[in-house]
Amino acid sequence: MRKILVAHDGSKSSDKALKKAVEIAIKFEAPLTVVSVIPELYLTEIVETDRARISNALTEETKIAMEKIRASLAGRAIEVKTVIRQGDPAEKILETAQKMKADLIIAGSHGRHGAKKFLLGSVSSRIVDHATCPVLVVK
Ligand SMILES: Nc1ncnc2c1ncn2[C@@H]1O[C@H](COP(=O)(O)OP(=O)(O)O)[C@@H](O)[C@H]1O
Ligand SMILES: [Mg+2]
Q1: DSSP letter (8 states) at residue 40
Q2: Ligand 1 pocket test: which of 124, 126, 136 has the largest number of ligand atoms within 8 Å of its C-beta?
Q3: How is domain 4-138 classified at the CATH fold level?
Q4: Residue of the nearest CA to atom 27 in ligand 1?
Q5: Global pTM?
């Protein structure tokens, strides 16, 4: 196992995925990349200034979340990199995995806004469908 990519969206489920990712990364002495994707806002009803404001708030929130993750892992025997992307979450996560040649992608089963009645969230299910490396979905 060389490189691990974990997808984090600020949800409890992605916190569990991160925890598992850290355990595995330590065990395999594998470098860990944490990716968080800021989704594009497609709502046509919102005016441009609101769109910019929401987008800035999301960006700020994501930066803080990534900063917290880095700080929480600072003392651990693990090489951690955090990356923030913008766009379609599943697409950007898969693209990040391809570019870094990830050997394993780890994601939570659910995210922030999903319907729990589904076995898998929409992002994690698209990752499982399209990834070219093994995927671990953490419940
Ligand atoms: N914007 C995102 N950035 C990074 N990872 C994400 C993002 N959205 C979802 N994920 C990953 O996918 C997992 C499942 O989320 P998702 O499929 O969006 O479920 P839901 O449909 O319940 O929101 C999350 O726990 C996280 O690991
Ligand atoms: Mg989601």
Answers
A1: P
A2: 124
A3: Rossmann fold (3.40.50)
A4: 107
A5: 0.95
